[in-house]
Design a protein that fits this description.
The protein is mostly beta strands. The chain is globular. The strands form ten sheets. Strands 2-1-5-6-8-7 form a six-stranded mixed β-sheet, with no helix packed on it. It has a four-stranded antiparallel β-sheet with strand order 11-38-37-36, with no helix packed on it. The protein has a four-stranded antiparallel β-sheet with strand order 12-13-14-15, with no helix packed on it. The protein has no helices and 38 strands. The protein has strands spanning 2-7, 34-38, 54-55, 68-69, 74-76, 84-87, 99-103, 109-113, 128-129, 136-137, 168-169, 177-185, 191-198, 206-209, 212-216, 221-229, 232-239, 245-251, 262-263, 279-285, 290-296, 300-306, 317-320, 323-329, 335-341, 354-360, 371-372, 388-392, 397-404, 412-418, 426-430, 438-445, 452-458, 466-472, 479-484, 508-512, 517-528, 531-542. The chain folds into two domains: 1-142, no CATH class; 153-542, Neuraminidase, CATH 2.120.10.
Length: 546
């Protein structure tokens, strides 16, 4: 038997890797390799067996009869001709001579072959020397690198937002990371948060609520969502394993205890070999129904409705052909849905990506024709765009926020507004200085004043990163950057994914209308002991009463 080690390039819930044993050179890479066995060709029984050749770092590998990689390395088989590499960061293994640790959006952190020019790489197979990472890669494999922007730090708006109280770090025990928070406010004013907490091996990831494990622990989990209807809380997340699914748990005691999770997607939605489907659950609740949306690039965004608190569900309905979006209900009973078309090609910005909007007036049974929200030929990234919705029932506005930008890492947050039920849209830019990276926006609408609150991550100002806040008046014709919500110890904002310092693809922003309090929850990279970890952080702001 001959074995070939391969990396699985993932885009789902997290990276697989063992817990750290030493200070990482960088942060955790992609998933743990697994072994694929191929039988030895026995067509010539008397032939002397010949072992496979061994490739060094950056060399070609994989395929039947292909080279295997040197010890401690594995084969990235999704790259042209295969690519020998190793993990860096999480297990304390340094890259060593002739290698450098690079951040990627799909494979975590990888020890790649170091280079000075394209001649050091497999140029005939499309590999070049990445000018930012000085490593042999193919275009689009590495993460973009945020720039430092001279002069921006003098902007007075880039201090701390005085609206918010002191940030509070949520306890995650000895976990390496906690990220992607979803939150709701209960009737008593308490905030319940679902987050992904892990030690670095995705099979050990858990979905937790205030220290209570809601799901996971035996299969990869991620992408939590929360909704509240009366006194009942609904939590959903993506559960990996042999066949991925969308899991739902229910709490009737304000998040103190949760039911055992049940599957709420339709098993026939996805093909048996499509391990990226379904994903990205989103929940919306009204007095009439609970809605779940889930998606993949293969099936688009599908919606199911439950009118008995999640016990039974309607048949799935395809609302939009795109994936990675949001759902929301309005007081008139309509269900609003947004999603991004274009797949994951152009991870850091492509004109092929379009944010689209649709609405259902019959409880999710049928949907109106899709309408583009983003501008024509606008560059929208596949990752970190985080399209999100907010509805102003009193004034009739529908709002959408998303990140725009390209591979130059000069991104902005777009706030789009519609007054004619989504038929036409106007757009305003936030954090648009033409230099810094701004990503993962979220929205919350203050129904009392009509003020729209916007939060996002960016690299503006003299610090490595910040979690920022802006306010927009009705119609979002003008938005003002109010400053940072974090306390100033945000260590790093990385455009890579599936690593310990990855902040995730979502953050939470919710309003307690009864008490006039705005709650923000985000994931922040920080130093704890000898390691860089991520922790969920909370801060609250008192809102005006008129």
């Amino acid at each position: 038997m001959r074995g070939v080690l391969v990396f699985i390039v993932a885009s789902g819930c997290g990276a697989v890797a063992p817990a750290p044993t030493a200070e990482p050179a960088r942060t955790p890479p992609g998933p743990t390799p697994y072994v694929v066995h191929h039988p030895v060709d026995a067509s010539v029984p008397d032939a002397e067996p010949v072992g496979p050749s061994v490739a060094s770092r950056g060399g070609a590998c994989g395929g039947r009869g292909g080279a295997i990689c040197e010890a401690e390395q594995s084969c990235l088989r999704d790259l042209p001709g295969g690519y020998c590499a190793s993990r860096c960061g999480l297990d304390g293994i340094a890259c060593g001579d002739g290698a450098t640790c690079i951040s990627t959006p799909r494979a975590g952190d990888v020890c790649a072959r170091a280079c000075r020019t394209d001649a050091d790489c497999r140029a005939d197979e499309g590999y070049t020397c990445d000018p930012a990472w000085h490593a042999c890669t193919v275009p689009g494999f590495t993460a973009i690198v945020p720039r430092r922007c001279p002069g921006i730090g003098k902007d007075a708006r880039l201090g701390r937002d005085p609206m918010f109280g002191a940030p509070e770090i949520q306890d995650a025990g000895d976990a390496l990371y906690a990220r992607a928070p979803a939150a709701v406010v209960t009737s008593t004013g308490s905030v319940v948060t679902l987050a992904v907490v892990g030690s670095g091996a995705s099979e050990n990831d858990r979905i937790t609520a205030g220290g209570v494990t809601v799901g996971g622990g035996d299969v990869p989990v991620g992408q939590p969502a929360l909704a509240r209807s009366g006194e009942t809380l609904f939590g959903a997340w993506r559960s990996g394993g042999e066949r991925p699914q969308i899991a739902l748990a229910v709490s009737r005691d304000r998040g103190a205890t949760w039911s055992a999770p049940t599957e709420i997607d339709e098993p026939s939605d996805c093909g048996p070999t499509d391990d990226s489907c379904p994903e990205r659950p989103r929940l919306a609740a009204s007095a009439r129904a609970l809605y779940v949306a889930y998606s993949s690039d293969a099936i688009g965004t599908r919606v199911r409705a439950s009118r008995d608190s999640g016990a039974t569900w309607s048949a799935p309905t395809t609302a939009l052909t795109g994936a990675r979006g949001d759902v929301a209900t309005s007081a008139d009973g309509r269900l609003h849905v947004i999603a991004m078309t274009g797949g994951t090609g152009g991870a850091y910005g492509a004109a092929q990506h379009v944010i689209e909007y649709t609405v259902s007036a019959d409880g999710g049974r049928t949907f109106a024709r899709a309408v583009p929200v983003s501008a024509r030929d606008e560059l929208v990234p596949a990752y970190f765009a985080n399209p999100t919705l907010a509805i102003d029932d009193r004034r009739g506005w529908v709002y959408v926020a998303y990140a725009r930008g390209g591979s130059d890492a000069a991104w902005a947050i777009v706030v789009a507004a519609s007054k004619d039920k989504g038929k036409t849209w106007t757009r305003t830019h936030v954090a648009d200085d033409g230099c810094a990276l701004a990503m993962v926006p979220n929205l919350a609408l203050d129904g009392t004043t009509g003020t729209l609150h916007v939060t996002w991550y960016d690299t503006r100002g003299p610090r490595p990163a910040r979690f920022a806040h802006a306010t927009c008046g009705p119609g979002a014709t003008r938005c003002a950057d109010r400053g940072a919500v974090d306390a100033g110890d945000f260590e790093d904002l990385d455009a890579g994914r599936l690593a310990a310092r990855w902040v995730g693809d979502a953050e939470a922003l919710v309003i307690d209308d009864r008490r006039h309090v705005l709650h923000a929850l985000w994931s922040e990279a920080m130093r704890v002991g000898d390691h860089t970890v991520t922790r969920v952080v909370h801060a609250g702001a008192k809102l005006p009463v008129r």
